[in-house]
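Long-time lurker. I teach an intro course on protein structure, and each term I like to show students one example going from raw sequence to a predicted 3D structure in token notation. This year I'd like something fresh instead of my usual example. Would anyone be willing to generate the tokens for the chain below so I can use it in lecture? Attribution to the forum is fine with me.
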Amino acid sequence: MTLTVRTCTRLQCAVALVVFLVGAPSAFGQTPPAAPEPPPRLEASAQFTFLDTRGNASTQSLGTGGDFTWRPDPWTYNGKVIFAQSETEDALTARSVAALFRAARALNPRLAAYGQYDFLRDVFAGVDARHVIEGGLSYLAVDKRPHRLRLDAGLGYLNEQRPDDSLSSATLSLAASYQLTVSTSKFTYEPRYLLPLAQTDTWKFDQDVAFTVALNSILSLKIAHTLRYSNEPPPGFETTDRIMTISLVARVRRPRQ
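-- Reply from a regular --
Happy to contribute to a lecture. Here you go:
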């Protein structure tokens, strides 16, 4: 699923992320205040995507994954796994596996310390295996329905295995997680900028955008778009990969007692 798109410079992507992080709190702060509902203690979901096209062209796409959030105060644990694969004329053209685990401990109602590990395998993008371990601070900048915005800053370590070489470096990361909830619909946007300090030209920018509409208390329809940008990919690979999915999601929740 590698597409040729207009690329951005490191400065342009960094500026865009900084503008979002700085401007969003003031813009969303104008929303009339509303008391936020306490989130459920446990949330878990599973999703499935399948597309089969026959005729003049034969294409099959498969996507599956799951996530969970557990909130035993003052801790919050998150985990997710996403798998995507595409075949054209019975030839494998894309396959990726992404996983993340995060543990955060609240220091006060808005500030938390976190540690996380994320993994990516995408051979068609020149990533045999990417491991990132990091820790940092997370700040809840906006928590007034329908808006919720969290800002992260962290330091960590990256090890990336590529076809002909490898990259190991300490890292600096900036990230955000924005959520807009209106009735039974939810929009989320999660950008992340990762800078390897040993080789700054190999910086990376990822973003996940999703729109979810509840069909009933368990099932939802989800449209999601993932973009992964690597400023200096291995020779022969493009800088940008995109994955677009439409999935059926089953979700369960356990409220706080």
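Some talking points for your students: The first strand starts at residue 42 and ends at 53. Residues 10-31+39-252 form a domain with the Outer membrane phospholipase (ompla); Chain C fold (CATH 2.40.230.20).
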